[in-house]
Sequence to fold (68 residues):
Amino acid sequence: MTDDRTDQRAADLLPEERSAGGSSDPRAQAEAILAESDEREADLEAAPSSFLEHRTSGQTSTPGEGTR
Fold:
């Protein structure tokens, strides 16, 4: 993880991340957030309670499609 990336993420913590983190160290919190994000990006099954559906543009529907 690069220092610039971590520093930027620490500076951009959302208010709920700041309050839920319970950490007085935003940089450490940012490192943890980025590490989890990187893990989920590398392994789509790493997010235990989420379901990610991947479709190509050809598999999507257009507005109004399927209505009567």
